[in-house]
Amino acid sequence: MNRFRLNSQPSLLALSCLILSIPSVLLGESNGTKIVPEETNTSIEETVLTEQKKQGTSPPTSKALGNDFRIRITHDKLDKKTFKLELQAKPSAKSTEPSLDQRINSFIAPITDTISSLVFWAPAVPDLQLEIVADSVKNLNIPQNSQEDGIVLEVLPGLTIENLKEQLQQRSKHLRVKGVLPDIRPLENRAGSKNNWRSAANGKFVVPCQSTVPAVVLWLVTGAIIFTLYLRFVNFRYFRLAIDIVCGKHSDPTDKGEVSHFQALSAALSGTVGLGNIAGVAVAISLGGPGATFWMIIAGLLGMSSKFVECTLGVKYRKFGEDGRTYGGPMYYLRDGLAKRGWGKMGKIFAIFFAVMCVGGSLGGGNMFQINQAFAQFVNVTGGPQESWAQGYGWLFGLVVAALVAMVIIGGIRSIARATSKIVPLMCGIYVLAAIVVLIARINEVPGAFALILSEAFNPQAVTGGFVGVLIQGFKRAAFSNEAGIGSASIAHSAVRTKFPASEGLVSLLEPFIDTVVVCTMTALVIVVTGQWEVGASSFAEGVSLTSDSFESVIGWFPLLLTLAVLLFAFSTMITWSYYGQQAWAFVFGRGRQADLTYKLIFCLCIILGSAMSLDKVIGFSDAMIFAMCFPNLIGLYFLMPEARRELAIYLSEIRKGRLAAPK
To answer: Which residues cross the membrane (predicted)?
Structure first.
């Protein structure tokens, strides 16, 4: 695969972070079959030596296998009820000296793991821990000349979760299963991805064999369904009216507020249309298969109603400072809205909890995830993980971006709105146009891609997640991308110039449609029609790399265009989320120059941290923070949704009476 290389080299800087206290929020995880090492008389060395003889190579430096193995499990196309297991000797690292990026990652990883485990806690299920372990043979010869792909030691087709233990015992020279299989037929879930080798952790490899539905996903989806029904499908009935409002109809520029409807939508979109649309979709398809796309679209359509309720309330309960600045968001409607109903103490607790989680979300999903995947794409176009001069210098990339972000966020929401109103249309246009070119090039495969997405949504292949697994991945990544029910977007929308809260609520329902139904679907189609989701063309493709490989498979220079889109997506998302986090920070610690400066400094430091950390640590922390925000927010929305419906009735009445220009 041709890569564009840029030449240069850099040097040093690092870290500091805050830890947020979080209660145990229920979110189920996959219980697994773990794959571990066997004391066996059969040496893996013999297999490697045989391979070397075939290739005419001499034995290189000896190396014990230990934890240095990885496994790929893929769906067997010849028999859809089974899967294929491939064992590979993992290549040794290029250097034994850890880079600054690696040191930062090892320092921060325990922190993010702890936070993630608290938020995503689920009760343990006994007797579902099966481990596949590598042979603990000493002096295994692993060729040093195969840094990227390693050596495949054995391939075992025709496996199922039920026969795995028996088959490995009979057929495998290097692996065995420890543990007890469940008596009931498990919900098979994807282990690894079709284009991705998964390395062992501590010498153990987990094959997920049962899924529990995450409580947070149920919480968000249930809320979206309730709001859709309660508001009588506001997401569909007033879609055209929402477009009219964005175009300037029914607007009075003299109304109190800081930005126009279009600017508020652009600012909020820049917080949602980000790397979640590019990397997040790739993660969903890698883990859940193409069927996850369908459930992402459904979640996006339902989420439009959630967005309407929270943004209507955000405008209704906003506050104006002496300097004319607007302060709004869930913190205010949770505190003041619930106080009106006699639950002032509960409202304050919910508001503070939300604000703390929002600060964490701004540092995680709104910051570290964005810069992490932007840097990953930069590495892709400068040679790839094995050859790029930038590998190991993520901190420097983060430092440059942190300086650019700081220049914008100093100016507050007006500065952010001006920047995003220019960046958002440009970045969406570039990305959607690039996706359209790819789809036109593969136009004959588009109908098949839609058919595959639909069939996999309801009847997924055994190893691509099972129905529950596919649904979970679709809803989870949609929620991470469009933030409907999370409450964050109401912070940006509360700054709009209007006297009718429902007017901005209607504008806000366009967000999940643009973000998930349009942009996420385009990404998913590109990945599916190019076949990169199932072709092992890029051994290390994950997140944005999978999307990049999909674009590159059609036109070689597309990754450069994608890199520009990724940088714009990441930059705009970071500056918007910095505003969200700053507003939440001010709610907890008070308003003032010193408080603002402290938050902005922490935010910029986290840009450097995120660029140096590994994706799994970043996404675990990001998911934990953002999903934790929805618990207090949705409780407040349930109690206050009658107010949102009343505001909608008032606004529509004004239009019907002719006091506002009627829509076309």
So the answer is: 212-231, 264-286, 292-309, 349-372, 392-411, 423-443, 449-472, 513-535, 555-577, 597-615, 621-641
List Cα–Cα distances, 77 to 82, 272, 290, 607, in angstroms.
9, 37, 15, 42
CB proximity list for 93: less than 8 A, separation 6 or greater: none
Give me 370's structure tokens. 């964005």
DSSP string, 201-227: BTTEEEEEEE----HHHHHHHHHHHHH
Nearest CA-CA partner of 178 in 316, 36, 285, 302: 36
- The rounded distance, in Å, linking the Cα atoms of 10 and 99 is 12
H/E element holding 275?
helix 275-275
**H-state helical runs in 410-514:** 412-441, 446-458, 466-482, 489-493, 501-508, 510-512
- Give bridge partners of residue 89 from the DSSP assignment: 69, 151
The span from the CA of 443 to the CA of 604, in Å, is 43
Across-strand partners of 34? 206
Give the model confidence (pLDDT) of 219-277 as tens digits: 888 899 999 999 999 989 989 998 888 887 777 777 777 778 888 887 777 767 766 67
Contact 44, 143 (CB under 8 A): no
3-state helix, strand, coil split of the chain in percent (to 5) is: 60, 10, 30
Q: Are 550 and 527 in contact (CB under 8 A)?
A: yes
- For residue 554, what pLDDT band results from cuts at 50, 70 and 90? confident
- Confidence (pTM): 0.69
Secondary structure class of 583 (helix, strand, coil)? helix
CB atoms within 10 A of CB 594: 9
3-state secondary structure 527-553: HHHHCCCCCCCCCECCCHHHHHHHHHC
In angstroms, rounded to a whole number, what is the distance separating the alpha carbons of residues 101 and 610? 10
- Say how far apart CA 320 and CA 340 lie, in whole Å: 19
Strands 31-36 and 130-134: parallel
CB neighbours of 211 closer than 8 A, spacing ≥ 6?
28, 30, 31, 187, 189, 465, 466, 468, 469, 472
What is the secondary structure of 355-377 as a DSSP string?
HHHHHHHHHIIIIIHHHHHHHHH
